[in-house]
Amino acid sequence: MNDTVENYIRVIRKERGMTSEKLSELTGLSPTYITRLENGKRNLSVKNMKLFAEALGVQPHALITKASAEPIVTEIPVLSWVQAGAFAEAIPEFDLSDCERVPVVNANNPHLFALKVRGTSMNAVAPDNSHIVVNPLDKDLIDGCYYVVILEEETTFKRFNAEPARLEPVSYDPVHKTIFPKNGTEVVGRVIKVVNDL
Description:
Elements: H1 5-15, H2 20-27, H3 31-38, H4 46-56, E1 73-83, E2 88-89, E3 100-105, E4 113-118, E5 131-135, E6 146-151, E7 154-161, E8 166-168, E9 186-195
Parallel strand pairs: 1-4
Antiparallel strand pairs: 1-3, 2-7, 4-5, 5-9, 6-7, 6-9, 7-8
């Protein structure tokens, strides 16, 4: 086996017990592209390297060196909770030095914060009492991504879908309804990870 970026991706993917289909789902790249990449038939761009590193839970250099592929764990402050169901009060301001913290793999952005999830409207991706990690600098709404938003001074966590613009529950419980945002909707940030203890 040649010591190429592609081979390290395959090695790390297999160490994680991950199929190429799952890696495709996590990166948004086609399974065919991933297979060709792992077989050395495609080159890896810097942009895609970052996608693979995040999906595999490693630092990007682990894909191109023989350095350890061990994940880096960061303690992210838990600011409050967010309702995944009925609305709740807006997220209050906190002194971060006194916050509970949750360990998160490969999340070394100093602006990230976590929220504890309450409710069942997002339980297919974030069960009740799990934590979501929010990037408050990423507020551009992208179709299919997850966000914490404030609507009429109340906070919720939902998936954004475009055309028409709407915030949708992702739940095993069909009782939860789609929300059509109005003027004055404030995006708190994009949800980038779910942390859930089994």
